[in-house]
């Protein structure tokens, strides 16, 4: 694409046209004894194939006119071939699509950046897409970029190890980052760069082994996932505790759409902050069930009792249907939103 429609080829055509007009100006000036302005005018009219307003007075001028007409035809045919090749190969349509894609990314806010669009990154993107969450893909592989384009994803052709590529993906406005490259070294560098740029950014990274996982945590990753270790644990669980595995698969978002999990934070503007689960009659009022509480200090209450207080800064882990979870979110919505 870039070889067929390049600035160099357009420059060659412009230079050739300039040379033909300059040569024609000199030739008309010498053969017809016309002024330089008149000779330049005659050269432009002839080379542009617009025709002449007067017939040259002698044979030498007519010969110059013939040569310039043929040169003009050749140059314009060359330019036309460049344009046709560009259109056929999608240069112009691609440029418009690129402009629209850039504008869409500039409007993103509170989105996620996926660095690495291999098997893991594509699965993450599929989950985000299903949940309706905005994200930007960052990868340099031709196959990955083509896969992102086919999926309709917003993407940046680059690498997360470069700060300018992270900025182009909207890192300063992002809610979180997923370092899902196949390379532990790249994920480590991505994590370091993202943490340096955004100290409070949520970062989830992929690691191939425990040693890489330790380094990623030291680099600033909030969560580290080891796909091979996780796959081994899941396979062992399916063999050793098949009913437990079946239940967990059923209640997960991917396995059971009628029962989902959600996390809801208790904010200062929530009118029910400081009240207990029993006082709010959460189960009766919403149908959802609070299965765990992440306290403000980072500890977890995995079996909250009805007397457990829902304090500012706590995060509820709730289970229920989409409608039940929506009612629970409305119960803990800020006062302004409720009003």
Task: Outline the structure in words.
This protein has 15 helices and 10 strands. With 339 residues, it is of the alpha/beta class. The chain has 3 domains: 7-88, Helix Hairpins (Orthogonal Bundle); 108-230, Rossmann fold, CATH 3.40.50.720; 251-338, Regulator of K+ conductance, C-terminal domain (Alpha-Beta Plaits, 2-Layer Sandwich). The protein has a 6-stranded parallel beta sheet, with helices on both faces. The two termini are 56 Å apart.
Average per-residue pLDDT, rounded, comes to 83
Give the class-level CATH name of the largest domain: Alpha Beta
- Specify the CATH homologous superfamily of the largest domain: NAD(P)-binding Rossmann-like Domain
Which parts are unreliable, with pLDDT below 50 for 5 consecutive residues or more? none
| Coarse morphology | elongated
Short overview:
This protein is an alpha/beta fold and 339 residues long. Helix content is 54%, strand content 13%. It has helices spanning 7-32, 36-47, 59-88, 91-106, 119-131, 142-151, 163-168, 184-197, 210-219, 227-240, 242-251, 277-280, 282-286, 322-331, 335-338, and strands at 112-115, 135-139, 154-157, 176-179, 202-206, 223-225, 260-265, 289-294, 300-301, 315-320.
